[in-house]
Every structure is written in structure tokens, then in C-alpha cells.
Amino acid sequence: MQGAVGFAERAGHILLSARFWRGTLATAVFLLVWEAVARAGLVRVPAPSSALVTFNDLMRDPSFWFSWYLSTRRVFAGFLAAMLVGIPLGLGMAVSRILYGIVFPVFEVLRPIPPLAWVPAAIIFWPTQELSIMFVTFLGAFYTVVINVIDGAQTIDLRYYQAARSMGSSSWDIFRRIILPGTVPSIVVGATVGIGIAWAVVVAAEMISGGGSVGSMGGASGGGLGFFIWNSYVGGSYNQIVVGMISIGIAGYISSALLRKLGELVTPWLHEQ
Amino acid sequence: MTVVSTPQLSARPSAGSLERPPAASAGVIEARDVSKSYGSARFAKTVIRDCSFTIASGKLTVMIGPSGCGKSTLIRLLAGFERPNSGTISIGGKSVTEPGRDRLVLFQESALFPWMTTYDNIMFGPRARAERGVEPRRRAEFLLDKVGLGAFRRRYPTQLSGGMQRRAELARAMINEPRVMILDEPFRGLDAMTKKLMQEYYANLYEETRRTTFFVTTDIDEAIFLADQILVMTNVPTKVRAVIDVNLPRPRRLEDVIENDDANQIKMQVLSLLHEEAMKSFAHGSKAAADFIDAYSKRVRKPS
After folding, report:
1. How far from the centroid of its chain's Cα atoms is residue A169's Cα?
2. Are residues B86 and B216 in the same domain?
3. pLDDT > 60? residue A215
4. Do A181 and B79 touch (CB under 8 A)?
5. Which residues in chain B have Cβ-Cβ distances shorter than 8 Å to A173?
6. Helices (H), B111-260
7. Which end of chain A, N or C, is less surrounded by CB atoms within 10 Å?
8. Mean pLDDT of all residues in chain B?
């Protein structure tokens, strides 16, 4: 836990680092090439400069931010549910052969079904559209979380168990102090990958399930960045499509970065030098 | 250095233990006709066959044998992680059926828990048994100091050097005050200098505590430097080929042992026994291996 001085120092480090400048330069070059291609009329795609103008307008439009909010809420609701169900299930399957034998066949049959194939069934099954989308988002993250937890728990070195047992550990003690911390790195990996999939899924689900009443902030159904893009396409505003796409990219990046940071906090032994 | 006694090579495995006090004393390991095989009944591979030995209380017994001879299997049996197919193993008169804190195993590679700091690793045993109060903490502090890791108590295992990890693991084992310490090639994989330092450090530690120790190695010099008694094992299926007493005075220094005539004589004995066992493991014998060991023996003999 560093103070303000530590933070300023670290910010200075980042600004001076070659990695930071390389990243900035790469992004700048990417935008320049895109701008050139768009201006030359090689492809029918809006130039970043005109998208920026549209973004500037949208920034003052509450319904745009409400789309952000809706998508983010769905992603995190689905993702948290996937963690809450997936981590205990994965740990249980790794620890108990009986549970593994019961759950794994069903799990493996359901897993190849793309979350988007669930959209119609979800809409029929869940009482509200909101819950349907959250459920599909949940599925997107769920399989990845479970697979990672099982794998993480099963690949814990046998010697750790033996060492713990010979020092007098009970089964509960081994679970709490060996299996749980030993699986945390895999949980972090599963979560980081899982939330990325959740973003991919939520956008598509929003496009399929339609808008309900977009723009009306009280509307409980529809909306979201996926619908925003779809709606812009239908309305012919190509600049908005680009803004919507980049918004999703940024939102996904922030979510993953947040989880990575959180992951570092819960696995200090992998990061302290 | 004076010659203390001529080391004797006993033909029968248990001969060495006859002069010692009866098995009733604490910390004695007794293995009787232990056999262990793996695989199905039809395609069983016997790793240990009719293996018997006795390990005396307060002594450091070193087991040495050709590589792949089933030493690690024997350790898993002693630790109680696996059960023998026949025969019995007892520690302090109690039959070994499951892992217990009366014996602690130090594995070849570090088994420190990566997610715990040095201090938490050392405190693992007391916490596992829900020992409360200042006493376990006091012992942990004492041991941290003893293994020279006081300044590294908050570090994680990956932040420690190989030698430090081994010492942290020694401390983590010793805090449980086991009757028997079992070390499975503990200094393997350390660089030559660290290995030497660890051997000397370990010898000191043993001489201070005199805790009954079963030490497995493939390094003859290490065996002679540390041992009160050496068990030379046969090739697979393993049993005890010979028991050799090492009556070099303690405290020992590495340099002294290298120059000591007795030590060199023991080394020759062990080498020739291991040579025979190694030869058996080649289906038709290997000229290259034989030449190598022959040349090695001559070089060792030269000074005397």
C-alpha cells in the first residue's frame, strides 16, 4: 500500500517506459492507416475523425451512456453468477469423484452448444428479457470458469497433499489451505477469459433479442450496446456503429484489466519480486 | 586424524543392528520382509522384495543404491502414503498404516507451499493441529533464526534461493518435532557450492539434535560424510545388500572426510557393491560402465 508519492512515482515510470510508448505509437499508427484508407474511399467505412465527432455528440446523450450501463450490468450479473456457481461446482467436481461422474457427462454435452443458441430458449424460459440476456451471458462465462477451476485443482502437486497430510492436516484443512489457494491462479485465468466471452455474448444477445424501447431510460427491456449498434445500422448511422464497436472494445478491455489487477491482489506469491 | 575402527561389511542385512539396543527404544524404524509391486497380478512389477532393515534411535542412517532402484517407493511406504503388499513397517513399535506426524518426509524437490510465506509455511504444522498460544510462534521464531531465514519470513518460496528453500523446509519439518526425519535426496539439484554448504549445515544441525534420520542419496561422498550407518541397496527388486557402519568421529568436516583413510576404504566398499548392482542392471553388462567404474576406483585408491 503506497502513498501518493508511490503512485506519482509509478505513473512516472509508466510514462517513461518503452512499453507505454510502443503501445501509444502502435495505436496512433493504426488510427492513421484507418483514416487514410477511409479518406481514400478504398472501403466504405467511416473515418476515425468523423466517428470522433459523433462520439463527441453522443457523450452528451444520456441514452448512449444508458446503453453502456445496461450492457455492463448484464455482463457483470452473468459473470458474477458464473463465478458463484462455477467455482464451487468446479472445486466440488475436482474433489469428489462421485460429483464429477454425475455432472461431467451433462456438462460436456451442454458445453459445445454456443451460448447464442440458447437465446430463443432463454427468452421462452425466463420471465423477463433482462433475465434471458443475463442467463446467456452467464453461460458464456460459466463453462470457462468451471473448466479452469477443475483443471487448476486437479493439477496441484501431489507432494503438497502428502506434505500437508504428514504434518497432521485434516481433509477440511487441506481443502482450505492447499486446494483453495492452489486453485486461485486458475480461477483468475478463468475469470479473465470468461468476462471477455461474456462481453462477446452480451452484444450478440442484445442484437438478437431486440430493443424493446431504446432511448426511454425507464425501459427495463432491450437496449444495451449491442442493440445500439444494431439500431445505428438500421438507422443508417455508420459513425454510430463504429462508436458502438469501439465502446465494446474499451469496456471489455477495462473489465479484463480490472480482473487482472484483482487477480494480482489475490495471488501475491506470483507477483512479488 | 586417528583411525577409530575398521569399518566392517556385514553380509547379512540385520547384522549391523545386533549390537544396538532392542527395538523398544523410541524412534526406531523396523522394516520386516517388505515387498511392494505395482500393476495387475499378471503383469506385476516388483519394486521391493523381502526388504528388511532396522534404523537405530538417534542415528543418521543413509540409504544408497543404484538410481531407479526403488528408493523413492520405499520412502512412500515409510511415510505411509502407500502400503506394502506384504511385510510390516513399524516406527517406535507402532505399525505404519497412514501418514503421521511421528515421521516427516523432505522430498527431492521443494514442497514448500508457494502461496504461503516462509513463516506461514513453517507454521503450517502447528496450525493444522490447531495448536494455539505463543508456544508454536516462539518455536517458529527460534527455527527461523536457526535456519538463518529471519529476514526472509515474509518472502514467498519463489523469492528464496534453492538452498534457502531447503532450509525453510527443514524448519517446517522440525517444528513438528517428528521422531524420525526422512530425507529423499534433499540436496539434489543444488549447485556444487550450495550443496557443500547445505551438507555441512545439515551435519551441524543433526549433531545438535541427534534426531533419528533416514537419509536417501545417490552421492557416495555425501553418504559417508553424514552417515552413522549406510544401507547399500540392491538393484530392482530392492532389498538391503549390505549394512556398513561409519565410525568417523563427529563433528565432521568435509575436508577431513575426504582425506580420511577409513572414509576412503568405505567409499571403495560402497563403490564396488554399487558397481556389482549396476552391472546387474545391464542385461549383458556394459563394458563402458565397467571401464568407467574401474578407472574411478583406481583414482580413488591412488593416495593410499
Report:
1. 37
2. yes
3. no
4. no
5. 128
6. 118-122, 124-128, 134-146, 162-174, 192-209, 220-226, 254-259
7. N
8. 81
How close B75 gets to chain A, by Cα (Å)? 12
Confidence bin at B93 (pLDDT 50/70/90): confident
CB contact under 8 A, B159 and A173: no
Same domain, A52 and A94: yes
Q: Is the domain of B190 the same as that of B274?
A: yes
Closest CB to A166: pick one of B105, B114, B155.
B105
Least confident of A133-142, A210-219, B201-210, B257-266: A210-219
What is the distance between the alpha carbons of residues B159 and A272, in angstroms, rounded to a whole number?
A: 8
Structural domain containing residue A39? 1-45
Domain identity same for B71 and B188: yes
Residue A202, φ and ψ in degrees, nearest 5: -60, -40
Scanning every residue of chain B, which has its alpha carbon at the shortest distance from the alpha carbon of A162? B81
Task: Please give the share of chain A, as a percent, with pLDDT higher than 70.
Answer: 93
Contact A273 B159 (CB under 8 A): yes
Spell out the SS3 assignment of B51-83: EEEEECCCCEEEEECCCCCCHHHHHHHHHCCCC
- Cβ distance of B99 and A160 shorter than 8 Å: no
Q: Which three cell numbers stand for residue A188?
A: 483468475
Give how many domains chain A has, as a whole number: 2
Among B4, B52, B26, which Cα is nearest to B234's?
B52
Q: What is the DSSP string of A28-89?
A: HHHHHHHHHHHHTTSSS---HHHHHHHHHHHTT-HHHHHHHHHHHHHHHHHHHHHHHHHHHH
Q: B111 and A159: CB-CB below 8 Å?
A: yes
Whether the CB of A172 is below 8 Å from some CB of chain B: the reply is no
Structural domain harbouring B240: 9-97+184-194+209-301
Question: Is residue B168 assigned to a domain?
Answer: yes
Do B78 and B139 fall into the same domain?
no
Task: State the pLDDT at residue B289.
Answer: 60
Closest chain B residue to A268, measured at CA: B115
Instruction: State whether A215 and A158 are in the same domain.
Output: yes
Instruction: Judge whether B69 is closer than 8 Å to chain A, CB to CB.
Output: no
